[in-house]
Amino acid sequence: MASFRQFYPTDLDKFAKCNLDPLTETYDLSFYLQYYAKWPSLFQVAEDPHGNIIGYIMGKLESSPKYFQYSEHFLPWHAHITALTVAPEARRLGIGKILTEKLEVAAEAGNAWFVDLFVRKSNTRAINFYESMGYSVYRVVKDYYGDDVNDPTAQGEDAYDMRKPMSRDKTLKHHREDGRKHEVQPEDVF
User: How confident is the model at residue 74 (pLDDT cuts 50, 70, 90)?
Assistant: First the structure.
């Protein structure tokens, strides 16, 4: 059985089981600590009875900068899932779902319009997971990832910008049924 709690800096030494997955981005220590300092309620971990970190989610609350406000790509106040990962031996136990729900609760408390995330177009397991939780593809970001885990000779891989409206978005302004048809370049994404 897993328990869930806020991340602490001492947890960084226990991330190895989670970060060995090739689809999990690994960041430098200062990046994790920045999230801890700025958005502690959006940085949660799951730990097993032995104190091992078997999953974590880190997110933030943000909006596009003011100079972007007249752009069609402007993003209002929203929560962003920067990373969600679960150790291989702990998958299919509902840990990812619980961590995501905890972030969504924090997003609601922060009065976010929506929660968004980027996922590799080839990561069908993650896409199916997020769709089962009410997320949908809002747009395709061309060559967002600088590498292609399925083809090392390829230039890059597209990302899906997936979103789930929060209660503030009563008209579903930040939801699209045909998001896979809307393509943008990485420089259009903030």
Answer: confident
